Amino acid sequence: MGNKPTSSSKVDTQRQPSAVTKPGSVTVQYDVMLSFAAKDLSLAAKIADQMRDGGLKVWYDDSKEFLKNGRAILESKAFVLLLTESSAESKHCKDDIALAFISNKPIVPVALQDLKKISEKMDFGLKLTLRPMKVLELDIKGSDADEQFQAVLGQIADESSTTDTQETGLMNKTTRIKLDKERQTAEDAFAGTGDFWQRHFATCDSVDWDEFCAVFSKDYQQDIAEVFGTGEEDREQLFKLLKQRLFHGKVVLDKSRYYEVCNRYGGEMAAFWEIVQTLAMEENSIREVFDMSSSVRLAAVENLANIQSASVIGALRRLLTDKDANVRAIACVSLGRVSRATAETPVAIKDQLRRAELQMIAVGLKDPDRLVREASAMALANLGSTDGIPGIVHLWRNDAISNVRAAALVALEKIGGPEAQSAMHMTQVLMEEIGNLQN
Fold first, then answer.
1. How many CB atoms lie under 10 A from the CB of residue 298?
2. How far apart are CA 424 and CA 76, in angstroms?
3. Among 34, 54, 56, CA closest to 45
4. What is the DSSP annotation of 263-322?
5. Alpha helices in 162-230 (DSSP H)
6. Which residues contact 61 (CB under 8 A, 6 or more apart)?
7. 252-254 and 206-208: which strand pairing?
């Protein structure tokens, strides 16, 4: 939303923030976006007023529909989640924090009730996302409420001024600091024994899936139970993630692949347990944001060009093979929103975009679902994929569904250039010749 207040939002009109605009980014209109459950509206209103009194420009939705939260998150410097038993179970609150996470916004969780009771209401994904973050407590009726509130303002200020934008993952500074401390603690248990691979597979160039799982479960049994729980379903999610992200769905993991992932997410000294948590948080957030039922999916898709992250693009690329055709189509549409690579585009982003392009050519254009084929053609066109021309021409000439053929023609026209023009011209000439034979 813009600078003007609407009937469904309340913003501070007394203090105008200095809009922050960078090439390829969203204009920052607000200092803070408040996310809360509908039942907690009165509490949110009071806290928003206090934040305004503290000099912050605040956005929050008092319509209880929360339709504009996604855009507001992207237009705010920092994201504040008001944690209560209600918000812990709120679908839109979980969507909100996931979008804040993948767009690398500073996240400040504030507990308004007993944190233990709130935790009992959280699902696997929310617990995972919040675990490495510092949760502040605020009792607005308590005797030390002023002191607690100043701590909240201080945390917001600190986070807003020190956001980590490096392409090693999606976590902000506070999250990384806490995980760094956890890494030191975890590695103390294995002092002098090297990292995970060196401890168990030092003489091996590869390891199979079953052996890896057995060793990993033994090394990190306590950590797995603490972070992912003891339930079979949560453990299955963890190992499914590891097989997908580390093993690329294969049954063997190469040593070079293991260290490639470790280096990408934290440097050579990164503890493997830190890497696992990072991968899990990213994957959970991506799926939350781009799920069909997500309340922030449209905002994320429309502004994906502003979320310049190799991690996000990589996660969308993995969704191209999801078993749900709707998810595959959304992934294609989302990738089509990413800005074309330029000379200034980071190498990691270029690499993920190229992989996504080749995957849509090899798989997306041949998908059994017609919406996925259609979305793949248009996404390739938006990415300017000349390598996709033969496959798109094939769709145009041979697909049984007219909508797909029409989309393929639009895609070819959008890609343009001699190769696309030549392919279209040749097809049109042949169609005319065939038509003449029928006369």
1. 12
2. 45
3. 34
4. HHHH-TT--HHHHHHHHHHHHHHHHHHHSTT-SSHHHHHHTGGGS--HHHHHHHHHHTT-
5. 173-188, 196-201, 209-219, 221-228
6. 8, 9, 67, 68, 69, 72
7. antiparallel
- Cβ–Cβ < 8 Å for 84, 37: yes
CA gap 274, 355 in Å, rounded? 26
Assign 101 to helix, strand or coil. Answer: helix
Full-model pTM: 0.74
pLDDT digits (tens, 9 = 90+) for 112-154: 999 999 998 998 889 888 887 889 988 877 888 888 888 888 8
Q: What is the DSSP letter of 356?
A: H
Q: Pairing between strand 10-11 and 58-60?
A: antiparallel
The span from the CA of 380 to the CA of 388, in Å, is: 7
E-strand spans in 90-233? 107-111, 136-137, 206-208
pLDDT digits (tens, 9 = 90+) for 79-98: 999 999 999 999 999 999 99
| Tokens, residue 394 | 């094939």
